[in-house]
Structures are given as structure tokens and as C-alpha cells.
Amino acid sequence: MAGIVSERILSDVQESFSFHGCTKSKWDGIDFEQKRTLTPITTGTSVLGMVFDGGVIIAGDMLGSYGSLARFRNCQRVIKVNDNIIFGASGDYADFQFVRSLIEDKVIEEESYHDGFSLKPKSLHCWLTRILYNRRSKFDPLWNTFIVGGIQDGEPFLGQVDKIGTCFETPTVATGLGAYIAQPILRGLYEQKGKVSLQEAKEAIERCMTILFYRDARSFHKYHLGIVTKDSATVEGPFELKTNWDIGLLIKGYN
Q1: Would residue 94 count as lying in a domain?
Q2: What is the pLDDT of residues 46-57, one digit of tens each?
Q3: Share above pLDDT 90 across residues of the chain, in percent, rounded to a whole number
Q4: What does the H/E/C string look like for the chain?
Q5: What domain range is 191 assigned to?
Q6: Does residue 100 fall inside a structural domain?
Q7: 45 catalytically annotated
Q8: CATH number at residue 102
């Protein structure tokens, strides 16, 4: 009797909700879970990174875009991993939170050995390529691009890893729309100066973040700065950009 009732309930559900591709086998156990692996929902835009004389700086704004809606305005995407590493992420925010938890577990595991060794930036960079490539190979990618910055053997390190595990080391890096707008500015400064001071790097990052706020509809005017040197690693901010929109009054239809 109970089996007959269950079949009738299942039949009523299927008739009431005409979900595409809904077959009886898919409704076994009435599992309403939805998977959106290939459709990122809450995303973050560009993250910028640059090597300066004695360290690395990484910047990312605080906006989590729900599709095209500027929904979440307190999403920190630049974090400190340990005293030698800072880490930034663009792309799906949920996937970033998942990877952040994996990194935290790895740091705890490394410290539990009490052998005097800690996670190094190149090791984290290499490990992330394995994680992302493994998920990509399962057709279940983590929809992110990560930037790893740190100090290893007294030298600054800056590297990028994308969602299919492609990685490279570079003195300047930008993800998202920043790869087209901010990267030429950062690269030009680095090639012109050779060794960039921390203050010059901060000014260049601020300029790039301002331009991105003007040009990128998914960007925000508040951002965090991650700075790592041989002495420490810190995440500063949030900082607020100074912008000027007076030119908007000259555009027909603006108001």
C-alpha cells in the first residue's frame, strides 16, 4: 500500500512540475539538489599582482557579482596564507572558498609536523596546478584564476594558475578584464623601472584599480592590498578609490 502511495505522489510531482528531462529514474529518492558547476553564480572580477623591490603586492576588489547584479560588497578575495605567502582569486567565489579551505588544511598539516619547515609559494603554486588540472580532467572545473605571491629563498615569487591548471611565473599579472587594461600599465612600469619600490607599486596598483572601476561593470571602488616581504605578509584595507564622474553630465542620456 505504501509503495502505491509513493508512486502516486511521484506521479503527481512529475505532472505538476514539467522539469526538462525529468524521468522517473532521476526522481528516485526525490533528490532536489541542483548542480551549477559550469555556471558560476557569484563571481569576482580582476585581481592584480606585481613584484617590487623586496616583495610582492596583490590587489583585489570586494565585489561579489550575482550575475550582473552588484549583490555582495564585502567579499575579500586577497588572503594571507602564512608569513611567506599571499593569495588572490578571481572567478567563482564559492570555488574560491572551497580552495581556501583546502589551503588552510594544508597549512595546518604542514605546521603539525613541527619540523621548522612551512609551505613555500612555489610549492603552493605547483600544488594548485594539480588540484585545478585534476578537477578539469573530471569535467568539473573550479571556475577560478589564482595568483600566488610570496618570498622563497630570499627572492620574490609571483605566479598565476587558471581553471584548467595552466600556470606560469611572471613579474606582473592581472586576471579578468585587467589582463587587457591593467597588465600593459603594470608591465610598462616594470620594464621601464626594472626595480620598482613599494610606494611606486602601490600607486600603479591604485591607478589600475581606478581605471578598472571606470571601465569594468563588475568592479568596485573598495579593494584590499596583500603585501609580502622577507619580514612579513599582511593584507591591508579596505581602501577606497577616489573617482570623478563629472564628465557624465556631458553625455546625452546619462541622467
Answers
A1: yes
A2: 999 999 999 999
A3: 71
A4: CHHHHHHHHHHHHHHHCCCCCCCHHHHCCCCCCCCCCCCCCEEECCEEEEEECCEEEEEEECCEEECCEEEECCCCCEEEEECCEEEEEEEEHHHHHHHHHHHHHHHHHHHHCCCCCCCCHHHHHHHHHHHHHHHHHCCCCCCEEEEEEEEECCEEEEEEECCCCCEEECCEEECCCHHHHHHHHHHHHHHHHCCCCHHHHHHHHHHHHHHHHHHCCCCCCEEEEEEEECCCEEEEEEEECCCCCHHHHHCCCCC
A5: 41-239
A6: yes
A7: no
A8: 3.60.20.10
Rounded to whole angstroms, the Cα distance separating 71 from 64 reads 6
Question: Domains in the chain: how many in total?
Answer: 1
**Parallel, antiparallel, or unpaired for β 42-44 and 167-169?**
unpaired
Residue 77 lies in a domain: yes
Q: What mean pLDDT, rounded, does the chain reach?
A: 87
pTM, 2 dp: 0.81
Which residue among the candidates 37, 129, 210, 229 is catalytic per the annotation?
A: 37
Residue 27 lies inside a defined structural domain of this protein? no
